[in-house]
Structures are given as structure tokens and as C-alpha cells.
Amino acid sequence: MEKRRSVTDSQTPLGAEVLMLIAVVFLFPSMQFAQAFPPEVKKASEAFVCQCSCNHQLSACGMLNCGSATPLRTEIQEYLKQGKTQKEIVDAFVAKYSKVILAAPMTQGFDLAAWLAPFAALTFGLIVVYFVIKAWTQRKPAVAGNASTRVIPDAYRDKMEKELKDLG
Question: Domain containing 127: what range?
């Protein structure tokens, strides 16, 4: 005689275990794939832009297994383990990847223009608007001219009078 399994037995059916495993894998994928970095790495990586074309800060790149963010964060973590400061890490990254890695332009040399140009353009625009409005408000309305300022040559006056007579 074959013994039947009942639902009340202490053993759970194999299908339930598989369903629970699938649920855990699909509901919590970040736990199995995410590489956790300490907060110091996140703070140090705020100065850089991820190079995967997402245009996010390196600390905020959310692409799963990003081919750019993960190696760069690992490199930052190695620099921090070596005892390098934030400025030394920035200098090393600029030397290795150029200024394109920076999240914001530097505040020295020609890059200073990237910080100052918007404010200069806004100030210039406000000055122009001020003078245009001032000129418009001080403009006097045109006065209807008298007969001496509105002279119509005799040839045209005769032609107009002739056409007006033909109409009537």
C-alpha cells in the first residue's frame, strides 16, 4: 500500500519551496547583486560623474552592475584605504580621466568662466531691460503735425483731388 501525503503533514510540498525561492529572488534582486560600499566611498564619489552615459553623479548611478560606476567606486575605495584625501583622489582622477570625470567645473583658470558666465549674462540682460523700459516710459507721444510739416506736393494733391471727384 502506498502512503499518501496529506496537507496536514509537517513537510511542505516541493512546489511551495520553489515558489518562495522565486519570490525572494525576484522581489529582492538588489540584495543579491548590489555591491555595498561604505559611506566614505559614497561621499568621495559625489565629486565625479558616472561615465556610463546616465549623467548621474557617481554616488547616485542606479544602473545595476554598471560597467563604469562599480570599478570607479572600487578605485575610490582603494584610494581611501591608502589614506588619500578627497583632494588627492580628485587630482588622481582628473590626471587619469581628464576633467570630464568631474561633476562640476573647477573654480580656477578658464573653468571659472563656467561659474561666472551665467551670472554675468543675467546681470547684462537685466541692465538692458532696465534701460529699454526707461526709454519707453520717457518717450513722448507723437504730436499731430500742422500743415507746414505735412506738405503734399502739388502734383500729388491735384491727382488725389481728381480721383476723389471721379469716385463721387
Answer: 110-167
Q: What is the pLDDT of residues 37-57, one digit of tens each?
A: 788 888 888 889 888 888 888
Are 17 and 11 a contacting pair, CB within 8 Å?
no
Total domain count, the chain: 2
CA angle, 75 as apex, 74 and 78 as ends, to 5°? Answer: 90
- With CA atoms as reference, report the closest residue to 76 among 65, 89, 85: 89
Residue 40 CB contacts under 8 Å (≥ 6 apart), including other chains: 80
DSSP assignment of 35-88: ----HHHHHHGGGBB-SSSS--BGGG---TT-TTHHHHHHHHHHHHHTT--HHH
Last residue of a domain, one of 86, 104, 122: 104
> pTM for the full model?
0.49
pLDDT in tens, 106-143: 777 777 888 889 999 999 999 999 999 999 999 877 66
